[in-house]
Amino acid sequence: MNSTIKNTLELSVSELSDSIKGLIEDNFGYIRVRGEIGRVSTPASGHIYFDLKDNDAVISGIIWKGNVLSLDIKPEEGLEVICVGKVTTYKGQSKYQIIVDKVEPAGVGALMALLEKRKKTLTSEGLFLNDFKQEIPFLPKTIGVITSPSGAVIRDIIHRIEERFPSRIMIWPVRVQGESCPEEVIDAIEGFHLIEQSNMPRPDLIIIARGGGSLEDLWGFNDEGVVRAVFNSKIPIISAIGHETDNTLIDLVSDLRAPTPSAAAEKAVPVRNDILLKLKDIDLRLQSAILRNFKEKSERNKIICMAFPEILKIIKYPQQRMDNINIRIRLSLKSNLNHFSQNLINISRLLKKDRLKKMVESKSDNLESKFHLLFSSFDFFLMGLTSRLSLSSGILAALSHENVLKRGFAIVKDDSLTLVRSSKALKDNQNLRIQFSEGDAIDVSVDKNES
Amino acid sequence: MNKKVEITNDIKKLSFEEALSELEQIVERLERGDIELEDSISIYERGVVLKTHCESKLKTAKMKVDKIITQPDGDFSTEPLDDI
């Protein structure tokens, strides 16, 4: 054993290391290794160093700078991947490692798992809350578009904006897939915030857009750095990544999510013609409103003016009452007059009699002389009559009821002043008037029950 | 109505949307009609200026597409994008 060892060719360290390298490289060649990405470091050199591990083992991995740009996804800690490359050794450190050309996620499930985990973390941080969403300006002056400078997406956006509302668009070209995508998108968002320093207008709206693709293709828009850059943006951002069914984290964090790039353009600017029509309509309303206002005011004025004749109407009623009273006064005056004139007639009738009397009196002087003659002749005749009269009156007085009354009798008359000669016809409570010789007559009431 | 409307500085500062929404408020106020005649004239006049401002904003709408070029030193410049 010892002699065998002694006889063995002596190798230098380098010779041995090269020999091991050769053995390993020849034996394994091009391989696919599945594992979870551990610690990743990206030094300034541009190469990516990372650990690929499973439960029991770790192998170092290197992606040379030249391959980094062609990676579909950026190696991220925790991601289950399949690395394609060559196993080799690093003789400087007695280390074996895998030089990786391609990194593929270990199935969609691996990406989904990472996505879910990240979504959960960022959600718990509150990055997706609606409270943080900024309002999209109604009419942005300048629209920044972060997307690939070639392809259908930018064309769709430009054409849609042009047909809706021609605007100033600034395109920030980025790779929309691959390892460098997140970094470029972050630079673009930050760049738009700083663009004023280069005497260019800062956009008041940013659209980040990308066409449809696989989860892997869209992976850059699930990047945590991108999500944070969008969250921190002071400029409102509309995102349109992939199709409506694609759910990337940038869509959750953006201020507005559009299902497609064209839809993003629609949400960015209104239709100019619609606004022109609206403005025309508003103008019309403005003109007619002010005219109507004038008209209403002048009509009110007119109504107020028309209210003045109304006042005549108001006094019409009292006037009517007054007219009425006037008529009645006249009528009553007339009737009063009639009354007085009747009196006058009556009086004048009396007056006529007086006049007649006067006439008679005036005539009587004339008559007197004749009357005197007549009187003297009558005198005798009268004397005769007088004596006859006194005789008769003596008899009359004896027969007069007054003398009878003086003797203590009384005259009983009923209501109609008819002499009551019998009590038979008298009714109960009937009034009777009793006339005594002296004093006024008195009224008594019949009370038949007592008799 | 051919009189040229002078857009005052305070209105110039307004964004299109601000001007439009103020214009709409003015129209609504005027349409309600519960406004003094003199006030109605002054807000109408403001409405006309706002309308002119909005119109001019709409008329000046012009398509311009630039592409940002990032210089190696980190500075930016633009070039017209005409190959779309």
Summarize this entry quickly.
The complex is a heterodimer of chains A (451) and B (84). Chain A is an alpha/beta fold and 451 residues long. Helices cover 51% and strands 18% of the residues of chain A.
Q: What topology does this entry show?
A:
The complex is a heterodimer of chains A (451) and B (84).
Chain A: H1 2-7, H2 13-28, E1 30-41, E2 48-53, E3 58-63, H3 65-68, E4 80-90, E5 95-105, H4 107-125, E6 142-147, H5 152-164, E7 168-173, H6 181-194, E8 205-210, H7 224-232, E9 237-241, H8 249-253, E10 256-257, H9 261-268, H10 272-399, H11 401-406, E11 411-413, E12 431-435, E13 442-445
Parallel strand pairs in A: 3-5, 6-7, 6-8, 8-9, 9-10
Antiparallel strand pairs in A: 1-2, 1-4, 2-3, 4-5, 11-12, 12-13
Chain B: H1 9-12, H2 16-32, H3 37-59, E1 64-70, E2 76-80
Helix pairs in contact in B: 2-3
Strand content of chain A: 15-25%
Spatial sequence of strands, sheet with the most strands of chain A: 1-2-3-5-4
How many DSSP helices of chain A?
Answer: 11
The helix content of chain A is 40-55%
Number of spatially distinct domains of chain B: 1
H-E string of chain A = HHEEEHEEHEHEHEHEHEHHHEEE
Oligomer: heterodimer
Round the mean pLDDT of chain A to the nearest integer and report it: 85
Biggest sheet record of chain B = 2 strands, antiparallel
At the fold tier of CATH, the topology name of the largest domain in chain A is Rossmann fold
Model regions low in confidence, pLDDT < 50 over at least 5 residues of chain B: none
* Sequence of strands across the biggest β-sheet of chain B: 1-2
